[in-house]
Design brief:
single chain, 154 residues, alpha/beta, Collagenase (Catalytic Domain), 4-stranded mixed beta sheet, globular, binds zinc ion
Length: 154
């Protein structure tokens, strides 16, 4: 697994060093992936992946092997670096699910499955706090009940 860290997000660099080896061992789907990670500050239409229907500043696309971060949403959340690690793991969880053909019709179940990847790296409590911060930032209030269920499930 290689991250193509287009905007040099510090957490992405550290995440790769700290967790890359473990993730490739646990999730063979990730071994040969070149994952492009970028923010929406570079223009050229990249923001198309993030809109008001998202409850997280990060979103991913398993077909393009991409993870995107909305700077506007991100700046509302004040994550610690460990919380950002947890969210990156969560997004990789979505990508692995996509590679396995396990994209769920039940959105909450899929989110909980993605949260498990963060938990597998010992980041469950950081994922919980990150979700709470996304709730507090009011990114998508209609998802708050589901997000609280995710916190309880972690
Ligand atoms: Zn998710």
């Amino acid at each position: 697994m290689i991250f193509n860290n287009i905007n040099n997000i510090p957490a992405v660099k550290d995440f790769e060093i700290l967790y890359g080896g473990q993730l490739c061992k646990d999730y063979p789907e990730l071994v040969n992936l070149d994952i492009r990670i970028y923010t929406d500050q570079q223009g050229d239409g990249q923001i198309k992946y993030w809109d008001d229907s998202n409850d997280s500043p990060y979103t991913s696309n398993h077909l393009f092997n991409e993870i995107m971060r909305s700077e506007e949403a991100y700046n509302k959340c004040n994550f610690t670096i460990e919380e950002e690690f947890a969210i990156l793991a969560h997004e990789l969880g979505h990508i692995v699910a996509g590679k396995r053909g396990e994209k769920s019709v039940d959105n909450l179940q899929e989110e909980m499955n993605a949260d498990k990847m963060a938990a597998s790296l010992g980041l469950a409590c950081h994922m919980q706090v990150a979700i709470q911060k996304m709730i507090d930032a009011k990114l998508k209030p209609s998802n708050n009940a589901e997000m609280r269920q995710r916190i309880d499930a972690l």
